[in-house]
Each structure stands twice: as C-alpha cells, then as structure tokens.
Amino acid sequence: MTQAVQAYSYAGPSTLADGRLGLSTSGGTALSGPQAHPRFFSGLLTQAAPAAAGLLAVADVALTRYHQPRPGWTRDPVVTCDGERLRFESFSACGGVYARLDVLALDGDVLDRGTTNVDVNPPLREALVRVGGRDPLHLGVGPDELAVTTLDGAVVEKKVPLPERWLRGFAEVQVIASAFDLRAELRGPQAVRFLRSLPRKASATVWAVPAGRDLRLSATPAPGGVCLAGAGRVATLAPLLRFARALRVYGPAAGSRSGAGPAEPAASAWELELPGMRYTLAVSPQPWRGFSGEGAVLADLATDEAAGDADVVGMLLNFDPAVEIGLLADRSGLSTTRVRAALTQLGTAGRVGYDLHEAAHFHRELPYDRDQVAALNPRLTAARALAESGAVRLDGPPGAATTAEVTTDGGVRRVRIDEGECTCPWWFDHRGSRGPCKHVLAARIAARIAARADTGIAAEATV
Q1: What is the pTM (predicted TM-score) of this model?
Q2: CA torsion through residues 174, 176, 179, 184, sign
Q3: Terminal CA-to-CA distance of the chain, rounded, Å?
Q4: pLDDT tens digits for 23-70?
C-alpha cells in the first residue's frame, strides 16, 4: 500500500504542569494565514477531568490499529478552533474508527481560528491520567502557552507514515455520517449500564435495538436496530462513563444504501454527552473494513462540476461553527445539490467534517497535500479512463439512456445507470453497499458527456 509521510515540527513538547495544559502545535491554516506554530486559544477548562479523559480517548484511537494490531503506529490528533469550541479529531491506523471530542462553550480568549496538529506525548498522557475532578486546568493551544518546565525548549520533530486508507477515511466518514439518523438516546445510568454490557471481544458484532426507553443487545438484526461491528472497538468510551450524562446512537435507516441491507453489518456512531463537551466515535461496518473503501464519495466526485464548484465553495468557508448549505448556495449561486457535491470534493482534502449532533458540516483544514488526497480514488480514476477511451456504449438517445455496455479486459459489463447496477463481480459481491463500481461510474460520466454534446448540437441548430 502506498504511503505518504506526515512531518510534524513542534516548538517543544506539550506539557501539563502547575494546572496549566500547554498543547504544542505543528503547522496548519488559520484565518490569519498559514502558521508554523499557530496559537488558537488560552483559557480555563471548568470541567478538567472529563476534558483530560476525552483528550486521552482521542489520542488512544490515533495510536491504535484495531484490525490486525501491530506496534509502531503513532499519530497526533488534529484540533480545530471555530471561535465557539475546540474539536479534537483522530483516525485509527486501520481506518475503521474515527473519534472526535468537541469542547464546547470556551471560557477564555480565542486568539485565532483554524486547524493544526497537537503533540500528545507519553509524559503528557501520564499527566492527563492524574487530572482530578476538582483540579482547575488552564488550557492553551499554541506555543506561547507551554509551561516553563519544558526541558530545554528543543524542537520536537516527528515523521509518520500515513496509509492511503487513513487519508481517504476522513472524506468517507463525513459522507456516510450525513446519512445517519438518531436511533436511540439513553440518559445517565441507562447509558452506562448499556455500554458496560457490550461484549469486549474485538470481533463481536451485535445490534443495539430500542426497547422502550432503553436498548437491548441482539445477535441478529431487528427493526430500528443499530449495528455495532467489532464491539471491542468502542473501548475508548469506557474511561468516560463516569462522566456520561447521555448516550446517543446513530445509524443508517433500515435498508439504506448508505450502510447496507437490513441484514448486513453497517457503520454506526456513538456519542457520549459529557459535562461541557461531547465525544463521538464512528465505527466502520466490519472490523477489517476501513471507511476508506466504502465508496460513499464517488457519486459526488464523478460529477462534472464538483472540482470547480469546490473552488468556489472553499473560498466561502471561514471556520464557522457550522457550514450552512442553504447560505453557501445563496452566496455561491449554486444549487444545494451542487453545494453538497462540492463539500464532498472538499472532504477529500480533509477540509470538511460532519457533526451528527448538530446535523451540519464543519470546516477544518487537515495539514496534508490535498492534491495527493484527491488522487486516492482509483475506482473513479479507472472509470474516467473507461469513459475517455470509448469503452462505454449507451443504449438510447443522449440524455435519455438508462442502460449501457462497458467493454473491459474482463468482458462486457451491462449497466443500469440510474439504479447503479452492474453485471461485474464487484457489484454482485457488494450490491451497492460500498458505492458504485467503476463501470457504473464510467456509464454515468459517458451519459453526461453525451447529453452535453447533444445539448450543444441542439443549440447550434436553433441559431
């Protein structure tokens, strides 16, 4: 698997001393422009213990490979400051678990808005474990907040290999999550009791099924149930249970194409409400499946306008607390459908996430090469090559064709364009649960090209 390398350069290690938590930053984009060591926030965490536990939980996901675990992985969380909250995010090495801690209602000075990586080193982790419930904690995101006890102030350098599937996962998870519904909500003791009843085996797959105001576990799918594939992958929720005020469970509607058929494993998201913050964990449909291979972004990326629209919409993003699609449509002059496709395109560069609690996208700027990330969709690349090579034969007049034949080295594939069905092995294996195959994408691209050409000819004929 091809790997990129992410290089971090910190002015010094993050520290926790004398009630002051200083998070060292490495690179990033802010409203004030690109920064080597951006400084976003300085203020008080009134709920120190849950904040420390939540930050550790995010860091744990960044350090873990849940499928086929092996040592040697390290990755620093990403933090985004939008002026109203701090969002700490991470992704597992295997690409199947996404974590986010939203620290709400900031009490202090917002110095800038933007996104950066933060250093979470072993000594800091040990110090965070010791944070008590009544300990006051001053938080600083940026180099000026580092405690004076920071060794000799030497620069900290890290180089981390980043698998392609990890990079693609950030794009896929926001598209998949945007199709989720709130399926259940448990308050305090019920939430704790249910989460403690989950099997600890990493490979166990269960369904959480609403039962009155509670949830029950089922080994088989049931109406309204939410799949939890690999129950052991939500282990980072355990240290947070003593602070939990509520649990919200999100998943696709029964039979939704965004996840899978009602009897198939599906992705889900688990949100703990903590004092003054929320911790969200999203898990892929199966422990061995990373979000990177789900193909949820491909339909939007295959549109003709997506790349150009993304440039327009991207200029309107401003690290606001929520991205309002209607407002972006008004400002850009694009339809809401095209704005959604543009947000997907921006998501491939890590510039957009999705908040299930608020049912809204949010703006971030992940510090890696967006041109490289945009090229990490081989299915779409193969589909465009098929369309450009003339391998697609549409059945029917331009703009009205509903079926097509796609000629490949493996034979001729029959495609039903609107339904997204194909006679290839990929479609028979997944039946749309992992996005369209390259033949369906190629047929849709060819159909749009033919429709545009036909429209141009008709326009010339009327002149």
Answers
A1: 0.81
A2: negative
A3: 54
A4: 999 988 899 888 899 999 999 988 899 999 999 999 999 888 887 777
Domain 3-163, architecture per CATH: Roll (3.10)
In this structure, what token pair is assigned to residue 214? 């509670």
- Beta bridge pairs of residue 151: none
Non-local CB neighbours of 411 within 8 Å, separated by 6+ positions: none
Question: What is the DSSP pairing of strand 137-141 with strand 20-23?
Answer: parallel
463 has a pLDDT exceeding 50: no
Q: How many CB atoms lie within 10 A of CB 134?
A: 7
Residue 366, C-beta contacts closer than 8 angstroms, at least 6 positions apart: 78, 115, 170, 349, 350, 351
**Which tokens go with 403?**
């079926």
- The per-residue pLDDT for range 386-441, each reduced to its tens digit, is 999 999 999 987 767 889 999 998 899 999 988 889 999 988 888 877 778 999 99
CATH 3.10.150 maps onto the chain at: 3-163
Is residue 258 very low, low, confident or very high in pLDDT (cuts 50, 70, 90)?
very low
Residues 6+ apart with CB under 8 A from 243: 47, 49, 50, 53, 272, 274, 275
Residue range 7-13: mean pLDDT, rounded: 87
